[in-house]
């Protein structure tokens, strides 16, 4: 794959200067059009050490309007980043729609380095590349333009450059020079595997010969102009991932998973107080143990309107030190959130090691309310199941405890609670016209919930279906499950 970048291509200074002005103007024009079209652009700058990647990034800031650029340098992980799944740092660095993000180092760097240094086996490397492909598929499906640049040097040229750089700074060849030059062939082989497995039509790699700086820079400008102009004014591309219709939609009227929830389950007042106190005491200790062991927890609360999510969350938070948790109440997305991929606003709140984030409503809104109300297109909510599973898989692989609760009540119980909210003055604010509209679509939501549970209840992140007709029973079931899952993680 790299042979085509070892041809000794050169550009004379006069030729470069003659074309640079044209490239500069064309890039500015394409940048403005992409901004008007609200296209998020990702430029990944990768390649061998010594190929001049930093020079290219500086040149792009000179050729384009720097006000529309966001450059992220992903070097050594910070303590904050190590406390979260690996992709957390990349999600935070995604540019909003209409802006260009230049990634100096990216999600490719660490897997290639780990494999080259024999810190991970080949199957782990391939799994990581598959995750990268899935991530890029998701970004493309969301409308992003991904331009991946790989700058190549021969072994001889690389060593010559690194040696010259090292001698200019310290008078001797640095350990970095020796490390990369000794492992050049291994890095080349592993990098080529990475590029081949992630070189896909909607996010191809562009391998650029970097021996001659003028040739390298012109190629970068030409590639960016071609890719930007091809995307501007064209329909948003698709990754081509196959999405299948929801089984729930093809079996209207069939009994779903919610029909198995024992809604007659109940607790007496005395037993409720005794049991709740017991589990709250246990949760207080478990939360601190998890803090000491640096185990973080994500808890998701979904359920019918008036099912008691707020009350259940309060019983959980009452049992924990307020310094250990955050409650994120999810409502309609803000303008900032809408300018990023769907999961961005949830990734940003992933807790650091040892802490708890509780989501009152969550990323499952895409396959529930957005699906039923038509806020998301069929392809969007159908591919969301895989995107959500990948998100939760990354959380659990990092060691995060993921709890997911669906609080289930009957239509009759919901009606009683709605009517009570109308009667009681201090509860009226909880009832809205939207709640009544949602109630009219009970069957549609029931099918959406059944589909959601079937497709996203995994071994590491299972759904807990909570019988919530009796609030006391629901609260105890939630906090008991919380304790059991934390105990299991601590063991």
Can you describe this structure in just a few lines?
The chain is α/β, with parallel strands linked by helices. The chain has 21 helices and ten strands. The protein has helices at residues 13-36, 53-63, 79-82, 88-92, 109-116, 122-141, 155-170, 175-182, 184-198, 213-231, 247-250, 269-293, 309-317, 335-338, 344-347, 369-373, 378-397, 411-423, 433-440, 442-456, 471-490, and strands at residues 41-47, 69-73, 100-104, 145-152, 205-209, 297-303, 325-329, 356-360, 401-408, 463-467.
Overall spatial form:
elongated
Rg over alpha carbons = 27 Å
Q: What's the CATH topology label of the largest domain? A: Rossmann fold
Strands ordered across the widest β-sheet? 2-3-1-4-5
Q: How many discrete domains?
A: 2
| CATH hierarchy: architecture of the largest domain | 3-Layer(aba) Sandwich
User: What level of helicity do the residues show?
Assistant: 40-55%
The CATH superfamily of the largest domain turns out to be P-loop containing nucleotide triphosphate hydrolases
> Which structural category fits the helices and strands?
alpha/beta
Number of strands: 10
Mean of residue pLDDT? 92
Low-confidence stretches: none
Number of helices in the DSSP assignment: 21
Q: Estimate the strand proportion.
A: 5-15%
N-C termini distance: 48 Å
What's the CATH first level of the largest domain?
A: Alpha Beta
Largest sheet: 5 strands, parallel
